[in-house]
Each structure stands twice: as C-alpha cells, then as structure tokens.
Amino acid sequence: MAATSPDAKSTLVVRGACPHDCPDTCALLTTVQDGVAVKLQGNPDHSHTAGVLCTKVSRYIERNDHAGRLLTPMRRAGPKGSGRFEPVSWDSALDDIAGRLGEIARTDAQAILPYSYAGTMGLVQGESMDRRFFHKLGASLLDRTICSTAGGEAFGYTLGGKVGMRVEHFAQARLILIWGSNSIASNLHFWRHAQAARRAGARLVCIDPRRTETADKCDEHVALLPGTDAALALALMHELIVHDWLDHDYIARHTVGWPQLRERALQWPPSRAAAVCGVPQAQIEELARAYGTTRPAAIRLNYGMQRVRGGGNAARAVACLPALVGAWRDAAGGVLLSSSGLFPVDRAALQRPDLLAGRRPRTVNMVTIGDALLDTAHPIRALVVYNSNPVAVAPESGKVVAGFAREDLFTVVMEQFQTDTADYADYLLPATTQLEHWDIHASYGHTDVLLNTPALAPRGQARSNAWVFRELARRMGLDEPCFSDTDEQLCHQAFAPGAIDREALAAQGFASLRLPDAPFAEGGFPTPSGKCEFFSQRLADMGEDGLPDYLPNHEPAGSSSDYPLAMISPPARNFLNSSFVNVTSLRAIEGEPLLEIHASDAAARGIASGQMVRVFNSRGEHRCRAEVSRRARPGVVHGLGIWWRKLGFDGTNVNQLTSQRLTDIGRGPTFYDCLVQVEAAQDVATPAATVAAA
Predict the structure, then answer these.
(1) Which residues contact 295 (CB under 8 A, 6 or more apart)?
(2) 271-301 b/e with 16+ CB inside 10 Å = b?
(3) Which residues does the chain have with pLDDT short of 70?
(4) d(Cα 54, Cα 18) in Å, to the nearest integer?
(5) Are the C-beta atoms of 234 and 274 separated by less than 8 Å?
(6) Residues 6+ apart with CB under 8 A from 605
(7) Residues 399, 130: contact at Cβ < 8 Å?
C-alpha cells in the first residue's frame, strides 16, 4: 500500500487514520482508482476498528469531493461576515500575509494570536510546524481548553495523567457505568465492548441528564441534573463506607488522603445527593450496592460531565471510586476518561518551544475569545485560525461575532469549506483533507499509534497546514533548519527513536503501545506520590481544596425565575462538533436545529412538537424547532449542536446562549452550565442559508 500520484492509472488501497475529534481514532482503508477515491472503509486488521466506521466518517469521500471544497486562495472582497471573496494566487496571498504579520511582530508579536483545536487530531497538521512558527515569532500563546482540560487536569491531580483502563478490557467487566457519554453516537467501538460484556451477563448503567440513544440500550438510566455528578459520586462513596464495601488493603497501600476523603464523603448521604441530583434516593443506594459488590467494575467517563463550573471536582470524585473498591486489581476494572497520556509523543521535538528563546508571551484562553477580541487594553491585531470554527463553536457567540467583525483585525483562516468563521477572513486559504496529506495519530480511546498516508493528490490548490507555515516562515526570513522539515519528516519526529514499533507502523499502518493489562493493580500511579491521590497536595499548594467536592453550577437549575430551564447542548448524532454539518446526506438526517423539551415543560408554555421556539437568556436568543421528547427530563432542555450559524433559522446557534465562564479546574468551558427560557415563536419556513448551501 502506498500513496498515489496525480498520474496514477491503477487501483491502490491506502492505509490511513480518521482525523476527527473522537476517541476511536479508526484505521481507514481508501480504495483509489485512477487517482479517484472510490471506497472508504474501516481496516478489518485493526482490532479497535474491526472494519467498522461510524455513519459520519463512512461519508468521508462525499465530504472530500464536496462541491463546496475551497480550491484556491481567496481575499476578502466585501464587508466582514459577508462571505464575499475573490481568488488570488498563493504567492500573492502568502506574501501579503507574511508582510502583515511581520509588521505587527516588529512592534508587538503578542498582538498575533493563533486559534486552533481538533479539526484534525493529527500531530503533524495539528501541532507541529504551526507551533514552531508562532513560537519563533513570540506570538501570544493559546490556552487550548475548549474541550477536555477540566477532566484532564482533574485526572492529573488524582491519577497522575490521562491514564486508565485499556478499552478492550471493558468486554470482560461485570458492571459498566457509562458516565456522561452517549457512546453509541460518540464512542462506537467502546460500545462494541460494552455490548459484548452485556451479552456475557454484565449490567450497564448510563448516567446522563439526557435519555440518550445509549441510555435506551442500557439496563438503567440515572437522569441526574446537569452539574451534579460530584454529589452523586460522593454519595456512592458514603454508601461504600457505611456498608464497608471497601478494599482496605488497596486503600492503605496505594492511596493518599483517605481519612480526609472519608470525612467528606460521610457528609453526603444518599438523601442529600438525591435532593441535589434530582434522582430517587433508592436509585443511588442501589447503584452504590452494585458498584461495591460487583467485580470487575468499570467506569467509562466522558467529557460532557465536566463542562460545568464544578466539572474538575466532579471528574476527581469519579476518578477516586475505583481505588476505594480495589477495582484497579482487575484488567476489566477501573476507569477510562482518556488514554492520551499513555502515548510517548515527543512534543518538544514537534513544537520546538525552545524557539521562544526565553520569552514568555501572554496566554489567551480560547474559551474567552469573544472577550479577548473585544479587549481594547491588550488588542489582538492579527488572528490565524486553522482546525477550528470559533464563530460557531466558541461560547457567547454574539461577542465572538462582534470581535471577528472588527475591521482593524487581520484574520487568516485555513479551511476546507467556507464555514461561519471563514466568512470573516481577510484571507481564506484552502486546506487539504485527511485523504490528501501525511499525518500521525495518537488516540484518547485506545492505545495504538496510527499513520496516515496520503491517498490522493490535493484537490485544486489545497495545501497542508504544515506547508503553509513552512512557506510563511521562509517568506519572513525564519531560517532555522526546523522550518524545512517536510510533513513526512514531521511524522518521524513525533515519537523519539525506540518509543514505538516503527516497523509495525510502516507495515500495517498502526502500532500498539506495550502496556500492562492492569496498569495499577499494584499502585504505581504517575502521581508525585506514586499513589491515587484522594487529597492533592499540588491543589492545596495553589490555595485550592485538596479534596474533591460538589460545586454548584454558575447557573444552577431552578435558581432563576427569569430563566427556569437548564440547557445542555450535546452533539447531534450525525455531526461532530461543527464538522460534517455541510455534508448534505448527514444534514438531511438531522433535519433542522432542534430543542428537545419535556412534555410538562412544553405544555406549560403552549409548545407542540414541530413548533418554532425562541430560546433566550441575558446573553442572546436562538430560534429552532421544538421536539417534545422523552429524552428530556423536566426542567432541562437540550439544544442539539453544533449547527453552523448560517444554517440556522435566524443566523445563530445554541452558543448564542452559552457563557464564557470557566470551570473550577483546567480553565475549561461551561457549555452545560446555562439557564434559559423558552417560548413559542413565529414560524420560519427554512433555515437562513439552506438555499445557498445546497
């Protein structure tokens, strides 16, 4: 298997990797005939993929060949936000961009800000040449927090990093708690293992405010209120203590802070947690009994539960549970949030922070980009956006739009399609897709490294992200040898020699990390103490509570008469963040922007299914179609996302309503910590840009 060339006149099958923000990181096989991709499938030789792809990625060729692909560099030819551009040559675009960035850098390099996230999870196109370029300039640093930092840092303070069970061992568990994860939609290959466990007699419990597709298939659903997960976890600890469902030997030898945690947990009887979580006391007691008396017991935690004020503390509380019952002794016991901390990625070699040469630029949190762009005291003068669509995905998007609309802001967007963010660009540069460039991938759901070999020549004049930053560096006179590294060389630099099995990677497109089946059976956590740290001295040294606790939401359910409904904004099943929204077949499945609402809340407002509604709070308003749904519990509504704003009924999406307030740990977003009101609205025939997008 090898990459094809534009002149290929044969049939090839090319190995690759799915680039999208999903824990599964599937291995791909692309069949190419005469330089055209004719088939895309999962690699059956890769055990974690097993030949199966999700509905979204199975349509990747449709996305790659989409009529809306950007194929030439373009320069703005109308007001910002109008989406009007004129084609220009690469030389003209890059010369002007380099000149503009150079002029700003000479006076204040920190006025330049990169903005990127996980539009690709690839180590080369996502975090290599771009970081070198901005480090050398001395540009502002971006705190990339918009997804996972609350939970990730919480696990660091408790277990030592983003570490945990191996996903394949869930198949041998006897009890699986699926906590804050709609696995059928967002973690398909974990769900295969969960189903195998269930067929062998395991009990599956879904803990989620929404009755998801996953909850439908589990044995039990705990429909707690948003942001109350820590209270539930502490009540489970209370019952483990009271009934002595504890592994005293494991606690004594492999944990720190047990007396303090015990005292705190005893303050949380199930009756107290039931009142906070809005679930029956008996359900909490039975869940604790099951967890305390079943072996092996496993927890699959996902990131939805940490997108609230107390998300970090909640993740810490859940991370403590396996050590209390000795679940880590079993390969099929413990917890998995992310496996990404297990990969020995050589980020210093990829990103070259040494190019900062002692400078310490300011750091801008990507969650608060709306406020940052409107800050006149420390103005951002140039913004380079790639692998992200902040106008659609960042919170409080009314402010984000206002910031992007500044005429004095020089904005460069590297994209495959003309997204909401692209409409505000001064220069719009066509980016390659995963079928057209080299990359190498770790995973946050399994423990294999995957190599992505380009299957096709780039469409039109599309170029890889790394190529663009190499060219800008050359034009700006950045002559360090590292700026000459090719994309393929960057793939080699991602892991130090000997860190992975390079022969296996080259031969089969993936290589498994060498890891124990039960990594913490005898302790050995990668914390400072080498133990599971119920009490974190590192947090205490920063003036924070060293123990996990329940922190109410910034906007607790039931706390406002003006905005009495709690809103969460989980992803629509056929979208992935804002990716795939413009794929016609997938958008047709989703239909229209929806708000799921419980029958009692709908009746109180005179709302029927299919009716247009206005969802609003002090930050803004958003119109969408109501769906009276059993998936919503009373008092909670679900704004399914993330639709492009231009495809919405009123040119907005749910992030018009979310806030820029941050989590307790990790400086993360609080998308699911949001109060709203809902009322019936005048009907609108079609979303604002459906005709233009068709």
Answers:
(1) 174, 327, 330, 333
(2) ebbbebbbbebebbbebbebbbebebbbbbb
(3) 1-9, 685-694
(4) 11
(5) no
(6) 678, 679, 680
(7) no
Q: Could you tell me if 268 and 235 are in contact, meaning their C-beta atoms sit under 8 angstroms apart? A: yes
On the CB side of 683, how many CA atoms lie within 13 Å of its CA? 7
Spatial separation of the C-alpha atoms in residues 487 and 48, rounded to whole Å: 26
| Cβ pair 293, 326 in contact under 8 A | no
Integer Rg of the chain from CA: 25
Interval 12-50: pLDDT, tens? 999 999 999 999 999 999 999 999 999 999 999 999 999
Question: SS3 helix, strand, coil % of the chain, rounded to 5?
Answer: 35, 20, 45
Distance CA 239, CA 245 (A): 8
Q: For residue 174, how far is the Cα from the chain centroid?
A: 29
Pairing of strands 203-207, 220-222: parallel
Q: What is the pLDDT of residue 344?
A: 98
> What pLDDT sits at residue 685?
65
The pLDDT value given to residue 181:
95
Full-model pTM: 0.96
User: Alpha-carbon distance 414 to 384, whole Å?
Assistant: 8
**Helical residues (DSSP H) of 173-310, grouped into ranges:** 183-186, 188-199, 213-217, 229-242, 248-254, 258-265, 270-277, 281-293
DSSP-assigned letter for residue 677: E
What phi and psi, each to the nearest 5 degrees, are found at residue 481?
-55, -30
| pLDDT tens readout for residues 412-431 | 999 999 999 999 999 999 99
pLDDT tens-digit readout, 389-405: 999 999 999 999 999 99
**What pLDDT, on the 0 to 100 scale, is given for residue 5?**
46
- Whole-number Å distance between alpha carbons of 158 and 481: 40
Query: In this predicted structure, what is the pLDDT of residue 588?
Result: 87
Q: How far apart are CA 423 and CA 405, in angstroms?
A: 10
Task: Give the model's pLDDT for residue 686.
Answer: 60
Q: Smallest Cα–Cα separation from 387: which of 468, 490, 483, 474?
A: 468
pLDDT of res. 683 = 87
Question: Is-contact 416 434, C-beta < 8 A?
Answer: no
pLDDT at 694: 38
DSSP 8-state secondary structure symbol assigned to residue 582 = T
Q: Which two tokens mark 305?
A: 């539960």
Whether the CB-CB separation of 449 and 112 falls below 8 Å is answered with: no
Check residue 424 and give its pLDDT: 98
φ and ψ at residue 500, rounded to 5 degrees: -135, 165
Structure tokens at 411: 């904005």
| Partners of residue 636 on adjacent β-strands | 566
Token pair of 185 as six digits:
């939609």
Residue 116 tokens, joined: 């990127």
